[in-house]
Queue: 4 jobs
Job 1
Amino acid sequence: MSRKWWFTLAAMLVTATLFRNRLRAILERTYANIRAFDLPSAGAYDTLVGTALEGFDARVANEVAAAYPGGKVLEVGSGPGRLAVRLAREAPGMTLTGVDISDAMVERAARRAAEGAGLTERVLFEVGDVGALPFADQEFDAVVSTLSLHHWPDPARGLSEIHRVLKPGGGARIYDLAHWLWLPARGGDRLAQLVAVSPFGEGEVEIVRWPGSVPAFVLLRLRRARENRPTAGEPAARYRR
Ligand SMILES: C[S@@+](CC[C@H](N)C(=O)[O-])C[C@H]1O[C@@H](n2cnc3c(N)ncnc32)[C@H](O)[C@@H]1O
């Protein structure tokens, strides 16, 4: 190896040693982002992941508009607002509130709604945590969420909050990555337990095949009972695979 290469190698080693703490922090953050299927900024997420998921959003919007053609719908973890804006266009009888823990995501989502003619009256976004939703009891006819559940620090608490803000008889459709069902996480059982201990008490889990026939996503379908029933705690989730 020439002297130039030895010098470059030595310079790299010295830099890595001097900045090792910062490098470790960057690597840990990158690893956490990859694990959480997230990106470091709302813009990067919207541009890369959001664009790649355009077909998935279209499919979800279609299913949600068919299930809840009108009424007040809450989107939890609404991110950059792609789904809410699409839904508002597809279902003119629907009013949408998106809630997300990230200010940057909410700002981006609000900008997207403002760009769509006449949407700002029907589509609102606000900052909030699924663990303490900033809404009154029984405020919404339906709740939808995509790819957010795996981020929630306490998913059981999140389901409980979703139940609280739903009107009796209201439904929730929670789409997430199918990693919940992979063997190492024993996700199927975890989802069943989550539902069983939640005030919903029962629900259905379906594999969502997209793109094509790839079983990459999962849909948790829940409904708030019309009457309060003392069923929480019983293992009542059903699975359709
Ligand atoms: C992977 S992104 C999904 C965004 C959008 N739903 C989509 O499908 O593109 C996950 C979103 O969930 C939000 N999120 C994470 N934890 C949350 C919490 N505790 N409460 C509300 N939103 C949360 C994140 O800020 C992020 O916008």
Job 2
Amino acid sequence: MSRAAVSAAGDSKRAPTDDVLPTGEAKRAAVKSMFDTIAPRYDLVNRLMTFRMDVGWRRRTVDALGLTPGSLVADIACGTGDLCRDLERAQMRPIGIDLSYGMLASARTQAPLLQGDALSLPIRTASVTGLTCGFALRNFVDLAPFFIEAARVMRRGGRIALVEVASPPNPVLAWGHGIYFGKVVPQIGALLSDRAAYRYLPKSVSYLPPVEDMLDTLRSAGFAHVERTLLSTGIAQLITATRA
Ligand SMILES: C[S@@+](CC[C@H](N)C(=O)[O-])C[C@H]1O[C@@H](n2cnc3c(N)ncnc32)[C@H](O)[C@@H]1O
């Protein structure tokens, strides 16, 4: 799934700060341990480094589902529960799932929470009407199995909304954003949380496949009406689709 400096084999337990990014089981273990470490200050650093724009992006994500109150929605990689809270505000019924116990332990939501892997969801087949995922696609070991799992757990006609970071299409903005995300964010992270983790986070964007490949993978998994919307000049992206 990768297109940049991702190591070929995931057999060793690499720190995610290495220049060569881990893959396979090594990536899964490194990501889990990293989020366990940064969980207590995750929300604070997120708000600061995005100037609170992340709050609006998540609300857009919930709106983009277009589901009615009462809908059961799985929030995959729920972290500290931000999307779960937005879903609750919209009177939906979220279930949060995350790999990291530390993130779940720091969550502030009334939603039921489960520890589990996005690539093997602890949810019954065709049981949810909606599925959200915030800023986690690049952390998964692979995207195709995640999209297949998402299709499995969703009812036909259900809606998926995935929000993720992106790079602006305008080259000048992309340059500025590259400096901010690659140099300033790690400094903020080092100051307030964990240096290694916030050096890894900008690099982890290289795990994302080219956009068209990602959208095709979603279609192949069983989704229709696949759409991608850029948010805030393209520093974030929202991908929506309907379970066919
Ligand atoms: C950047 S955080 C995003 C958290 C939350 N969705 C938000 O909007 O703030 C990424 C989350 O993905 C989780 N994660 C990473 N790999 C995962 C996997 N394979 N299965 C489930 N959760 C995973 C991490 O533990 C972390 O909580």
Job 3
Amino acid sequence: MWGRELSASTKFSPGSKGRLTKHDLDRFPDDTLFDRLARTVCEAGCLPRKELYEAWEMARRVRRLFRGGRVVDLGGGHGLLAQAMLLLDDSSPNALVIDKALPASSAKLHDVLVDAWPRLKGRIAFVAGSIDDVEFLETDIVVSSHACGALTDRVLDRAATARARVAVLPCCHDLDSGDDGGLSGWVDGAVAMDIVRALRLEQQGYRIWTQTIPEDITPKNRLLLGEPRAVQPIPRQSV
Ligand SMILES: C[S@@+](CC[C@H](N)C(=O)[O-])C[C@H]1O[C@@H](n2cnc3c(N)ncnc32)[C@H](O)[C@@H]1O
């Protein structure tokens, strides 16, 4: 299930911002978790198509590496990323979705997901607020899909301060104010900024993974994941 690639029947502009509706149900005929999730999203009729594919592709990559702990979805919008993570792997007891402007339709989407998967009931908290209002736990998995510009840096900093596992899919790189590490003479400025982010996380004592999700879903497709390296015990000095 986890390693499953998207079926041929779903090969229709996954990067479209058009909403998935009941008219799209036939595009997802299979009895796979992805197709069942997509059909449920179609029933809700409120989610842009690209958000389904982005959330799914990010969730499955995060879940290959990180299990257990609370899922904290920052700038989470409809919160599909957090909910897909719980559907892919029930090892996390609950999830928190924070967004300073939660879409009104996030409740509608959550309701149809709970109807389809009653085990989600009572496990997802939606909070309208800033990422700066959240207390992070060391055991959390902090995720953020397309936190615009410097918001991605704040997500990484806050997660690293708590020594939590983290995964971000950066977007809206501000080439004027962002840190490109002086690398943009060699590589694209946005790539340079994401390299600096990855190396900073590594220098903060994290093991990092750099991956991509398919470019036809979004050109902002670089996924950075990090997990704190275990602290090596200091050997006792013999007297
Ligand atoms: C580009 S959207 C991404 C939404 C969702 N993660 C997705 O991938 O579809 C960025 C989101 O971040 C939210 N946001 C911006 N600044 C924020 C802040 N300081 N605290 C919480 N959410 C914030 C916005 O309201 C918006 O919903």
Job 4
Amino acid sequence: MHENIQFFQAFLKNPLKVGAIAPSSGELTQKMVDGIKPTVNSVILELGVGTGAFTKRIQEITPNKDSYLGIELDKDLIKSLRTKFPDMRFMCGNACKSFALHKRSKLGKVDYIVCGIPFVTLPNDVGDKILLEIEKFMDQG
Ligand SMILES: C[S@@+](CC[C@H](N)C(=O)[O-])C[C@H]1O[C@@H](n2cnc3c(N)ncnc32)[C@H](O)[C@@H]1O
């Protein structure tokens, strides 16, 4: 199925959680991924993967399968992400629990977080929980 149609279907199913009617553009994707310099010992964590607009670009710079973890709430999107990116690791789950999900994945230290979560359309308390989770990955100072 075409990516835009799949994204729009996900939006119709859950407009506030998806928060957009189409995937991010190539220009935005480039801006989001610019500056990421992954190493074999670190992990890029992507929250709110959608149809994988950022993932496509991240895949080009990811050293191996253990250097990436994508967390997405929608199980239909997860199913198609696993088909589209067989060498990337995805977990179906809530970004509010990303620290525990990453721990369960047994992957290495997270050095980069790429976040596609639509904070504007989510309830404030959910947004706050996700930001607190992100903080847990931060090094002291
Ligand atoms: C605006 S879309 C962005 C998708 C993609 N990153 C892009 O830029 O095209 C937001 C995505 O975040 C997912 N999402 C929303 N809340 C989430 C949560 N609490 N945990 C994990 N994923 C979530 C939605 O299902 C949707 O796929």
